[in-house]
Write the structure tokens for this entry.
Amino acid sequence: MPGRVAEPTPRDLRRREQAGSDVRMIWRRISQVAQAVLVFVLLGYLIWRGAAAMDYGWQWYRVEPFFYRVIDGELIWGPLVRGLIQTLKLAAIAGVIAILIGFVTAFARLSQSVSGRIIATCYLEAIRNTPLLVQLFLFYFVLAPIFGIDRFWSGILCLAFFEGSFAAEIIRGGIQGVARGQYEGADAIGLGVVDKYRFIIIPQSLPLILPPLTGLLISLIKHSAIVSVIAVSELTTAGLNLIADTFMAFEVWFLVAGLYLAVTLTLSICVSLFERSLNKSKR
């Protein structure tokens, strides 16, 4: 009826509806977690049945020396821990170099220099359109003897150049995602190119760059396993050596996968916390 104002919903009724909605949401979460647990239990059962069909004898009681041993009161790290340390060292150095390559390439592509854009484009196309394994062999068998590089640094440089090509596009996209008005504002107050990017553009592009860059660093850690083909003593190589010595393939690969998973999840959580602190500081 025209001119009639609807009466508001009573407060008690709104509270009951809100409580009912909360209960439904909790039950939905519980059912989703239960489904995930059921899938994992089923997967574990299938693996256990498969191993039983192969008459495989699990030997988890032998895995402790893979991590550490105590001899005469002295702690000695096992091959998996030493391999993990080498993997972290390799990934950290390659990650820093990859980000530097990414920034240089991104700015070259955004610059007005024709030669810079041509070099950056050729680098991106060459790296992204050839297999990582072929690039590793080129670095190790061709470039390493020419420049006198050992296998460890051959692996680092190969991974850095490979991931640097993807980092370049992530960084370029983040810089281009900053609003045009920010560039014009920086120019209006008389900032130079370096100060404009240092104080205005880069800080605002970080929230856009960090999430995909985290994924790239996680990929770098996983891709580091490929250097095992040139016998760099990292985590996968340590696992292969242990399997050759003990024939415990199932246990060793579960342990190696678990260590990679622990490292990548820790990295994801740390970057998420850093990203959250950045967003809080912007408010």
About this structure: The chain has one domain: 76-281. The chain has a mean pLDDT of 87.
